[in-house]
Amino acid sequence: MTAAERMEHMGRLRPQLVRFARARLRNPVHAEDAVQETLLAAIENIESFSGGSSLSSWLTGILKHKIVDCVRRAARDQWQELDNDGTPSSRDDGESQVLHGASLGCPERELARRQFWSALLQCIQTLPERTAETFLLREFVGMNTAETCRVLAASESNCAVMLHRAKARIRASLAPEWSEP
Questions:
Q1: pLDDT one-digit tens code per residue, 76-122
Q2: Which of 1, 31, 104, 178 is the most buried (most CB within 10 A)?
Q3: What are the distances in angstroms from CA 128 to CA 63, 93, 123, 132?
Q4: pLDDT for 11
Q5: What is the pTM (predicted TM-score) of this model?
Q6: Which CATH class for the 1-77 domain?
Q7: What's the whole-number average pLDDT of the chain?
């Protein structure tokens, strides 16, 4: 298959990629962005596609990395959208329900939730890169063990060890402040 044929085939695979991203990100805008980034990366590196797997698998692998990047950005860059006059926007596009959960009506719970997510993000950022990727793929993206192993090119036992270490370090870091009384 020539590079041009591969690029044409990528266009036909786009709807499948969008469905995959939407299922993981639960935000249509972020899903579209992740797919666009995936296709751009694939086009830039189309010559590196060896054909050892299907084009669909190759694109899905790239997309999984883009989804992880999106989750990291969202966790790092939590911000509140402002109206043109600088006041918090009252617009609710469904994203706030996914990101903020049911605590929106209770300021104390909302503050505790924000503090928890900030502390969790700090913990994740202190993890070794592959350990953090394993944790994010499993716990945030929702990949199963086989998918995570395939994306990370790791064995199941190695993946399990990295996930265990990530959870243990996060638990130890969060325990003093966030344990139940």
A1: 665 555 555 555 555 444 444 444 444 456 788 888 888 888 888 88
A2: 31
A3: 22, 35, 11, 6
A4: 84
A5: 0.45
A6: mainly alpha
A7: 79
Q: How far is residue 150's CA from residue 74's CA, in Å, rounded to a whole number? A: 24
pLDDT tens digits, 136-156: 888 877 788 888 888 888 999
Query: pLDDT tens-digit profile of 14-68?
Result: 999 998 888 888 788 889 999 999 999 988 888 887 778 888 888 988 999 998 8
Q: What is the DSSP string of 56-115?
A: HHHHHHHHHHHHHHHHHHHHHT----B-TTSSBP----SHHHHHHGGGGG-HHHHHHHHH
Domain positions in the chain are: 1-77, 103-181
Pick the CATH number of 103-181 from 1.10.10.10, 3.30.70.260, 1.10.40.30, 1.25.40.20: 1.10.10.10
- Euclidean distance between CA atoms 158 and 166, whole angstroms: 12
How far apart are alpha carbons 151 and 174 in whole angstroms?
A: 28
Which amino acid belongs to residue 167? K
Nearest 5°: the CA angle 11, 32, 103 is 155
If we measure between CA atoms, which residue out of 17, 9, 16 comes closest to residue 34?
17
